[in-house]
Amino acid sequence: MTRNLTLLLIAGVVAAFAGQAEARRLRAGDAVPFSHRPCSVLDGEPCTPSTCSVFDHGPCIPEIDYPIGQNLQVTVLSVPPGDQQALYRRPDHDLDTIGDLFATLRSCWSPPATDAARAGMQMSVMFSFNTAGTPIAPPRVTFASKDAPQDTRDTYLKAINASLHSCLPLKLTKGLGGAVAGRPIMIRYVDNRELEKQSGK
């Protein structure tokens, strides 16, 4: 009886130490299950693709698709930097990801003619798409450069509406259409072209 009790006690202590070792092995802050297991072609266990750093012991950032938030925001520049040109090319297939949607919205932008434009002008609009890829209502202005006169604001809003209209309807896949339908989309337009300063603009 005493021997059996001793064996059970030893087994319990060993199990406790093993649990502590496993807890230490799993780093605090793991975002998802199995994020402590890097993917390997030699391993059949569940894993999460991750990016790693030489300054960290193990996977640091799980590469997973997080749920779509309550609103979607994108900035559109009139002249994109050279290293962002690819982000302004319209996909040649039905839009299936948020990246596809944003690339299309960027590629649609056609700023006002230079004689009616204002250097550094910014304007943000918000609207939502339905599953068919058309806006539920006209874009609503949520921000405009505070020192821009009303006629300049009207010019940019007209350019925004015309640019969006030229791309409609968006060819959304069933999955993306269901994911973004009714969700607020906010686009911030920035006219970063080199323009000569004009009076009243």
What does the model show?
It is a single chain. The chain is α+β, with helices and mostly antiparallel strands and 201 residues long. It folds into two domains: 33-64, no CATH class; 72-190, Fusion Protein Consisting Of Minor Coat Protein, Glycine Rich Linker, Tola, And A His Tag, Chain: A, Domain 2 (2-Layer Sandwich). It contains four helices and six strands. The protein has helices at residues 2-25, 98-108, 150-167, 174-180; strands spanning 50-52, 59-62, 72-77, 122-127, 140-144, 185-190. A hairpin with a 6-residue loop joins strand 1 and strand 2. 16% of the residues are buried.
Across the major sheet, the strand order is: 3-6-4-5
Structural class: alpha+beta
- Residue fraction in strands: 5-15%
The total domain count is 2
Residue runs with pLDDT of under 50 for 5 or more positions? 23-36, 59-66
Query: What is the count of helical runs?
Result: 4
Q: How many strand elements? A: 6
Work out the helicity level: 25-40%
Give the topology string: H per helix, E per strand. Answer: HEEEHEEHHE
Any idea what the CATH architecture of the largest domain is?
2-Layer Sandwich
Q: What's the rounded overall pLDDT mean?
A: 79
What would you call the shape? elongated
Distance between the termini: 95 Å
Radius of gyration: 27 Å
From the 3D structure, determine the CATH topology of the largest domain. Fusion Protein Consisting Of Minor Coat Protein, Glycine Rich Linker, Tola, And A His Tag, Chain: A, Domain 2
